[in-house]
Hints:
- By secondary structure, this protein is an alpha/beta fold.
- Helix content is 49%, strand content 14%.
- It is built from 17 helices and 13 strands.
- It has a seven-stranded mixed sheet with strand order 2-10-9-8-7-3-4. The protein has a two-stranded parallel ribbon with strand order 1-12. Strands 5-6 form a two-stranded antiparallel sheet.
- Strand 3, helix 6 (133-141) and strand 4 (145-150) form a beta-alpha-beta unit.
- 4'-deoxy-4'-aminopyridoxal-5'-phosphate is lined by residues 36, 103-105, 132, 180, 185, 213, 215, 246, 248, 254, 259.
- Its EC number is 2.6.1.1.
Amino acid sequence: VSFWKDVPQGPPDPILGISEAFKRDTDPKKVNLGVGAYRDDNSKPWILPSVKKAEDAIYNGKGDHEYLPIEGFDAFNTSAVKLAYADCPAVADKRIAACQSLSGTGALRLGMAFLKRFYPKSNTVLVPNPTWGNHKTIAKDSGLDWKEYTYYNPANYGLNFNGLVGDLEKAPDGSIVLLHACAHNPTGVDLTHAEWDQLYDLFAKKNHVPFFDMAYQGFASGNTDHDAYAPRKFVKGGKSILLCQSFAKNFGLYGERIGCFSIVCDDAAEKDRVMSQVKILARPMYSNPPIYGAKVVSTVLNTPDFNKQWLADVKTMADRIINMRAALVDGLKTCGSTRDWSHITKQIGMFAFTGLKADQCQRLAKEFHIYMTMDGRISLAGLNSKNVNYVAEAIFKVSN
Ligand code: PMP
């Protein structure tokens, strides 16, 4: 007899539930626009050629399966920091504490645990409305509260910048603010560089703590420097940021769980103290991180030929996504839609916030075998040259 008869049934994950419904559907026309993972034009996962080359080199090299240290693979952490912070003086000053993490989610979890333990000034993380659903649950399970700040403007499917600034002005000085560095999930709506500059001034004035989630560096625009503008701007200005990097999307290494959590400190001595505490947090959670993804990413980033190939690979993915946005809008026009769909091409990254209502999304699933989240978010990765017109026609029919 077990001890668990009072354990209640929990709700299914809203996004993984969609994939299950998609799998059960036997219609050959079915399309999965829920999945947050890149697919090629044949709807297949894509192993990046640069990653393949690194894997061959690793396989043929003399590797072993020993434990990594708590903070992970040194060559990986160094190259992850270089990729994110590039020419920020903090890199040369060696004052960035960096710890390999279990992808972006693990970085967020380490970061929030660190804030909980070492930032007594606030117990609340401010997150954009809307945000990736896991942000709130990670905060909660780390013992922090969360509160939303204005972000999205449903009236024009874009950014409510004045609302955002207003809310962060009103927030108590020294608030913890989670920021999507690029390719905001779920809306695809990003700040312009000029808006980031303005936000930087606000953070400097209010002494807010910038907590960056960068899950899509390079994947958004196709250019890794362009996509890292915001965290670099803050660091160059002198802000101490926390940064969560994921290498799931930009390396196609979803299942390898490879990421990096870093904190910019004032000097090398502070970095050493911070690093010692990050390790103390990581040790009882998972002891030390997995080795394979760290080897792949560092081999790609540290081998000039592979690195060059990788920059091209990232652009291939970003360009396909950007082309699908245009193809979808063209398809809608061809069907005769007179609605303004330009937000789909203005938004960036894996997702578009279509503005479709829940009942329209339900009709798309039921009548057209097209699956997406009920907030109208579609993953552009699920579109390809063969199904984009079918999807456009279906969206036209349910939204007309
Ligand atoms: N942050 C955001 C905004 C995301 O969209 C994702 C992936 N869906 C992540 C973090 C983390 O993903 P992973 O743990 O797979 O790196």
